[in-house]
Please model this.
Amino acid sequence: MYELRRLLSIALVTAFTGCAVAPSHDERALPYTPGLDVTAMDRSIDPCDDFYQYACGGWQKRNPIPPDHSSWDVYVKMYEDNLSFLRTILDSAATEKRRDPETQKIGDYHAACMDEQGVEQRGLEPLSRNLAAIAGIGSPLDIGPVVARLQRGTARDDVLFEVGAEQDPDDAEREIASLDQGGLGLPDRDYYLRDDPKSREARERYEAHIAKILVLLGDRPEAAKASATRIMTLETALARASLRKVERRDPYKTRHKLARAGLESLAPDFAWDAYFKALGMPGFDVVNVRTPAFFSELSERLASEPLSTWKDYLRFHLADNRAAFLSSAFVAEDFDFHLRYLTGAQELQPRWRRCVRLVDEQLGEALGRAYVQKAFTPELKMQVLAMVQRIESAMERRLRTEPWMSESTRRAAIEKLHAMRNKIGYPDKWRDYSSVAIARDDFMGNVQRAAAFELDRQLAKIGRPLDRNEWWMTPPTVNAYFGGQTNDINFPAGILQPPLYDPKMDAAPNYGDTGGTIGHELTHGFDDTGRLYDARGNLRNWWTQDDERRFIERAKCLVDQYAAYTAVDDVNVDGLLTLSENIADLGGEMLAYEAWKDAGKDQKPADRDGLTPDQRFFVGFAQWACENIRPERARELALTDDHAPSKDRINGVVVNMPEFAKAFSCKVGTPMTKAPEKLCSVW
Model:
């Protein structure tokens, strides 16, 4: 995904009318920022010394981080603007007297979420049935059905482990059952195992947070503290058995298909039959256990840990996963640890923002219909499609002429490119939420029923053919993604708005920004992970040994380059963790530049705003990444995110593009240039 951390076919038919009407600017009600904002620049900086600061220095000065955020950047600002716009849709949906069923659902969900007094009055009542189920656990064999019950009702993280459907890595046309590691309350397994002072502090703060949640559930402080220590010990054992994020980037390390009986042998002390029955799991013959060591450890802990520890663990995670939806004491503790401490946010966001975001998470395609009708036109869709096609053509030219590729690998790569599907704006077929019961006076019930709907939707895929038309993001999302096994690039309507894509702007910054995003997602199909899948999405090595060796050598150039950057304080960028995104950033911008030049080959664009067309291309590229970030958030991302910091995503690209050095007359030896023999280039 192009911007996952900052928060991820052609159908010209709109949601409601069957024919889209181009919205006026006033109807869209979205604030306008130009695709290249000269006031965001700091021209006192030499672009050859620090291009990111040159392009974004003015923006950083004018955009301090709001107290309810841990970072503030162009993507986040766009998303917050979208939330304000979506709020008007939801406020109307909540108050209209004559509503269709879909409008009723999103309106009543929003109204129930906004009923803060009602939530406060209910206190712990929304958890009572699940707490009773946990209290009723009489043996380790009872844990499985209770875990299933909890997983069916959480809108956030899966409880204990993740369950669902995934494409068969060996047959991408079918869906199979999937199990994966989980069960940790800290952001990543390394938080439990690193021995640096900040990691030790995070563990101490987390253990205190566990105790506070248990006290809110009614435990005495002394008992809660003792339980928190035992829970921490249990989670540390699970963390030790979990794969590291860098390891998980290798799809071969998460391909472990087992027959149903093999699951029983792997983790014999978990009551799988009772669990699957309570979950509503359809019958299956094969399951991909993505992290076998985790489930072996889980089974051993079920046999060895006191039952009281497991019951406390489940009570804590029940409340912790749902804390944001409960009374103010839970909301405050949830904010204090997960947002204030871990990310540096200083204030809780207004309730309406949290509620709009939750509607988008749980009923996103219903809300997305109204958004698309008001904010996205067929004309815009066709403009973006034309840009996609030009960038695909640039990629094909590159594949046909790369001197380091053999002919057999070249043919397979071109076949994969030709098979890639482009999904722009919104789905061809909207999701049906008619089976989700939404009540205006039952906020937690709505959260749980919507979560159960989504889990059932995922589980129903098992044993069925793949639906290649499905979207993994909602239309208002300010993000984009490449589907490795679906082999498609996806651009929701939310990312195709100014300033990221500006129809009023000249082509140079649009290609630098949106063109680079398109090229980024396309390049993901050929990065160090994407290249392991063939044209249909099967995990299959279609590379010769020599080509694979040459690819790895080229990629290592980027690993070493980014590993030398400092992310925050004493933490460097992880060149291996961020490799896929760094390959995509560089390859995408190189493709966008080539496509832009091809699109304008018969034109002579003029200078504007004191910038040449080439300079405008690169400034347009840089300004999507303008950002301010708190050190707490920067540290968390350095340890968990597969994107490099924003500054490095810009400077780390242009330093490898001679076109940039030429555009700004940078001499070899300046910070934003490299000697020709040291340039990194994968695609």
